[in-house]
Amino acid sequence: MDFVRSPKAVQHLTTFVVAAVTTILLTRTLLALTGYPQIGGGAGLHIAHVLPGGLLMLAALLLQLAYLGPGPRPLAAVLGGIGFGLFIDEVGKFVTTDNDYFYEPAAAIMYGVLAAVVVAGHAWRRRRPLDADERVAAAAHALVDGLAGRLPERRREEALRSLAKAGDSPAAAELRALLATVPTTSPGVPQHVQRAWAALAARVERASAAWWALPLMGVLLAGQAVVSTFVLLEVWSRRALHGVSVAGVLLGTAASLLFVAAGLVQARRRGRRAAVESFQRSALTSLLGTQVFLFASSPLLATGGLVVDLALLGLVNSDLSRQRREPR
User: Fold this and answer.
1) How many CB atoms lie within 10 A of CB 211?
2) Are the C-beta atoms of 69 and 140 separated by less than 8 Å?
3) What DSSP string describes 106-128?
4) C-beta atoms surrounding 182 within 10 Å
5) Which whole-number Å values give the CA distances from 326 to 99, 179, 257, 306, 322, in the listed order?
6) What is the pTM of this model?
7) Nearest alpha carbon to residue 19 among 120, 121, 114
8) Which residues contact 89 (CB under 8 A, 6 or more apart)?
9) What is the pLDDT of residues 96-111, one digit of tens each?
10) Nearest alpha carbon to residue 324 among 152, 129, 177
11) pLDDT tier, 127 (very low <50, low <70, confident <90, very high otherwise)
């Protein structure tokens, strides 16, 4: 059976994984700060957070089954990622005979699963670019929201750009005419919040286009990797750490630095876009690997690293999105 691929599949998968990692780190930080309370313990019950995680994953699935069009997918990616983060955070309980939540290799298991999702998503997309029929189908999917009166102007522009890459097929011409006639609506958020967010995104995109933005991103990503290593060494000097955590942080740091170096080399050989894509891999490696393993030794510092990684990933993705909208 052949399925039609979504042009935003990698973006949704990245949102899913980032939401999952954020949930894992914030959950463990909150539990450490509150002394690991047990909900329902007074009644002889223990409501593990794997249960609300399953409910959130169910909500994400129901969104996809109950509604047409691509509109629910960003929300489903966030809800599914949060739910999966709550679920896999308790993997230590399900792979040990004594239900050990603090099982040290659990970080490696979580990292392996989430990293596999990211790697498989990017490999699946790079294996074969979207063909003309898939681009037309994606535009038709956006038209569903337009016919229901729920199509923001930004998404209509994305659909028209997708059709422009689909060639001169009759279906593309007809869809282009239909998209031009359907009315657009503003996103379902307060107007002042939307304007503020759009203004911030525009400033970030303008900054990312400057000549100094590319080397600055490389310096920041490399600096984040080096700082993570120093944090590990500082914690290691105060108490013994499990070898899995140490190896995970060191390998994650080394991989992040290699991606940064590769990006700087590719900037000269293949252009800016190839460099930024390599920087994106560096940020994702730090987020999905280094910070997860570092969490085992210092939850608060790992949460700080999470915030920095998310900011860097946002900067890199902003530059990449701008380049994708521009012709090569």
Assistant:
1) 7
2) no
3) HHHHHHHHHHHHHHHHHHHHHHS
4) 16
5) 52, 21, 28, 30, 7
6) 0.73
7) 114
8) 23, 24, 27, 28, 49, 50, 53, 110
9) 988 888 887 787 788 7
10) 129
11) low
